[in-house]
Amino acid sequence: MAECLYNRVSDRVIDExxxxxxxxxxxxxxxxxxxxxxxxxxxxREYAHMPEVVVRPRTTDEIAAIMRLANREMIxxxxxxxxxxxxxxAVPLCGGIVVLTDRMNSIVDVDPENLMVVVEPGVVxxxxxxxxxxxxxxxxxxxxxxxxxxxxGNVAENAGGGKAVKYGVTGRYVTGLxxxxxxxxxxxxxxxxxxxxxxxxLLGLMVGSEGTLGIFTxxxxxxxxxxxxxxxxxxxxxxTSQAIHAVPRIMTSGGIIPTAIEFMDRASIKVACEYLNxxxxxxxxxxxxxxxxxxxxxxxxxxxxxxxxxxxxNAGAIEVYVADNHTTSERIWRVRRNIPEAWxxxxxxxxxxxxxxxxxxxxxxxxxxxRLQEKYGIPVPCYGHAGDGNLHAKPVMPPEWxxxxxxxxxxxxxxxxxxxxxxxxxxxxxxHGIGHKRKKYMPLVCSKEHIAIMRAVKRALDPNNxxxxxxxxxxxxxxxxxxxx
Amino acid sequence: MRIIVLVKQVPETGAVKMDEETGTMVxxxxxxxxxxxxxxxxxxxxxxKETQGAEVTAVSMGPPAAAKALREVIAMGVxxxxxxxxxxxxxxxxxxxxxxxAAAVRRLKGADLILCGERxxxxxxxxxxxxxxxxxxxxxxxxxxxxxxxxTGHIRVSRLVEEGYEGLDISLPALITVVKEVxxxxxxxxxxxxxxxxxxxxxxxxxxxDVDPGRIGLDGSPTRVVKIFRPQVARKAEMIRAEDESxxxxxxxxxxxxxxxxxLL
Lengths: 485, 265
Description:
The complex is a heterodimer of chains A (485) and B (265). Chain A is of the alpha+beta class. Chain A has helices at residues 11-21, 31-35, 60-73, 125-132, 151-157, 164-167, 202-206, 240-251, 266-276, 298-314, 326-337, 339-346, 362-376, 403-423, 442-445, 448-461; strands at residues 26-28, 53-55, 77-80, 97-100, 107-111, 116-119, 137-138, 174-180, 186-190, 215-222, 224-225, 229-237, 260-265, 287-295, 317-323, 355-356, 382-385, 390-393. Chain A folds into 5 domains: 11-100, Uridine Diphospho-n-acetylenolpyruvylglucosamine Reductase, domain 2, CATH 3.30.43; 107-225, Uridine Diphospho-n-acetylenolpyruvylglucosamine Reductase, domain 3 (2-Layer Sandwich); 229-341, 2-Layer Sandwich (Alpha-Beta Plaits), CATH 3.30.70; 348-423, 2-Layer Sandwich (Alpha-Beta Plaits), CATH 3.30.70.2740; 439-480. In chain A, the strands form 4 sheets. Chain A has a 7-stranded antiparallel sheet with strand order 15-12-14-13-17-18-16, with helices on both faces. Chain A has a 5-stranded antiparallel sheet with strand order 5-6-10-8-9. Chain A has a 4-stranded mixed sheet with strand order 1-2-4-3. In chain A, β17 and β18 form a beta hairpin. In chain A, α1 packs antiparallel against α3 (60-73). Chain B is of the alpha/beta class and 265 residues long. Chain B folds into 2 domains: 2-215, 3-Layer(aba) Sandwich (Rossmann fold); 235-265. In chain B, the strands form 3 sheets. A 9-stranded mixed sheet of chain B has the order 11-10-9-12-8-1-6-7-13, with helices on both faces. The interface between A and B is medium-sized, with 22 and 18 residues.
């Protein structure tokens, strides 16, 4: 790899790192222990790479000291949260140091007067809501991995998730960040301010920067009043087209923006129900929607779900199930959340794609999936966030195929998929990020000039290319032209 | 056939907190749901309705808010609900509850089959079902894991017992309590929700039932709660180590011995 012109981590560097974080918070010379930090949740092992050392700092100053050391010694640094990412963002592609934020897991400040919470990057996303529930507030980010993922990673990837239709993605709620720059300086961007136009929107630049422009050490999040009532509908459709056409009607004819609109195709429903031993009568359905409605009182929510439910019935739904308490609701969402895990059990060779298109283009994209399945003979089950056009296509290797054939065919399928997505006004990632997994496909959706600007930004902030090198795009222009992989 | 299902509204278990000082459950602000184990009884009733044809009535005893639990099971497919509610019933233990529910069943002119969940997730006694049966002088089968056949005047069920399953042929009318194995509860439907919203749920007070005022509520409850405490969970783990392969067999032997001593093997 052209960019890996770095120095190895020497014993002297290890000693210095020990002085910074303490010997017990450093892992090296133990391949089994280090292996856990060589990959994230991307299934394909070819995207993994071993770190040389993992450090677990507790403070901002420790991280700043690590960055200064890394610049001096020319050693790459890869920040890592819970490792639940889906683009390889936390993979130490060039070896070097992995900075794990798991010990920085304090909720620093709950500020109900300002509807803000200040947290450290290693806080598990779900715990934020546990901590503020008593104040009648909630944090609206809802990545599907919320039981394990860290807020720092959510910000780095600008995570979306299941409630983005109504509440938007992580970035909407980040009002302040403390950042350690690639050079080892500490800057505070934003704060507890709802509006802020003081100069360039560097906060916005940091959100979604995939760990390439800075390491977040403190995050200020905007909170919302906790909805008093919520209802989920699980709707089974005989035909996929019925489900897809029902979605815009709920928002247009119904005049309702649901909190969530999740789509699952037959293959995904089947694999998840079987994995969970769930007895929902999915056998007659080829598509399923989960719709969530929340609001300030039960009557308002009831009106919304009854209207939306009727629209689904008119669109040809086989059955509309209603969950208006936590237990039933969890039963419904469990099916959706467990789809990735269920596919994991089903096949070792698969890839999770994350395309996003304007919502009106969803039917066209689904037809495209069918054509690709036929052309390449690879099943492409699909599920995802129908309300915002973000669909997770999951090409799965047919059991009778050799891995070589799979590896040779998949990039061609993905290139076709991404070209189609681009033609429809979409792009290659809605919420998982580019990392190094989708890097080679960037030229399909970003112009040369666009990538050149991103390179210039990276160079300005990280002249030595120390922080998370090899992600999103290559610094060397000549290596990033081959789109067909 | 006519089926009555007894259901109870309970606090959502995931949300329950204990008051550290009094040792009692904090109910304020906790979502109230149908006792999850009662949903299996509801499902068993609805399955019989589908296969045999039946009219299913749910009966619940509780505060006025418990009507919501009845609407929830109506939304699943239950035909009608009756709420037994009166401040005179407050403080009922399982005995007084069984007595009162039996009176409600009598007012409904009985049923061919009365179905109950195994127990409620709040009180956890599993007594109300059998006690109701005793007040009605009905045969009872607890821990029913499947309803195998229903013929005129008879029902064949399997009970989950310590050693396996026990098959019983019971004459109807009868009362059975079911365990989770019996069926996976269905979800309420949109059509069901609409029916439930408009359903008329009669509320029966003590005056509506043929009950002896001395046998209901706190006065009719022989149970006295003397003390509530949290049991200490003492885990007595024994670590058995095999440092290398040569020790594996001996270690495995000790695991077997450990489990045999405790009647687990």
